[in-house]
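Task 17 of the worksheet. Students: predict the tertiary structure of the chain below and write it out as structure tokens. Keep your answer in the requested format; marks are given for formatting as well as content.
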Amino acid sequence: MASSIDCPDRAPRAVSGAARRPSAGPVRLRTGVWLRAVVLVVLAVLTGCGAGSDTGARDDPAATGSTAREHPSATAPAAGAPGAAAGTAQGRPVTEATAVIPGLGPRTRAWIPGDTRQVVVVTGRDRNANHSVAVLYRHTGTGWEAGPVWPARNALRGWTDDHRAGDLRSPIGVYSLSDAGGLLPDPGTRLPYDRSDGFAVSGTGFEGEPLEGSFDYVVAIDYNREPGTSPLDLTRPLGADRGGGIWLHVDHDGPTQGCVSLTKQHMRDLLLALDPALHPVVVMGDAASLRE
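Model answer:
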């Protein structure tokens, strides 16, 4: 069946590489809702992206959810990205530090943990958009510096702050990034990395595009999942109806079922840049929601 691809729903596999360390669960969620993992058999692909985490009430630091819209301007900065920001291939910041991350309102900023020093901001133009942009920010000690602006995609129907399994919307919120994996060998990330054939996928997406290779590299978004486990782990702390399997993964040239996708090179760059010691999180949603 046509799918936007999100991670395959398979039994958890042994994690290769560095020993896994449990990390904080979802940081901020909105109205608790999660994409349900769909079993991936042969040509079938899952909804979500990986093993998700839940959303909660928007005013509640432990909750998340919201929607975005299609075709954001190719030059539009990601959630507060400083216009035509430029950076190294690995997303190292080259712009002047700012006191706060542009485009994020007081409520969204309050959801970011105090010890976080890396923030991936994924912003859509509006709630129904399935195109977005991503920027990796790093705190230098004196302020936030932005890396390059990367084109990204999200769920077919945009964003929601009340995510439910199968709603084809990406959850709005702030979530920790604890675990990675993929069909390809570890490119050298400092995150725990699960190299597994369980990330193999086939079939076609919503626009008829091939899904093969979409999970060559993934980073699990801690939405309705158990941090410290492989992205393939099917544990759903909030229940299957809240969805799950929300990942950052390789773009397949079409919208997703709930995940966020980047080009293969940008996913590799992100994996090399993320550092567990900096307590990385993803801030994701439509621009209006993130400005709150």
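Marker's comment: The radius of gyration is 16 Å. Residues 115 and 169 are 29 Å apart (CA to CA).
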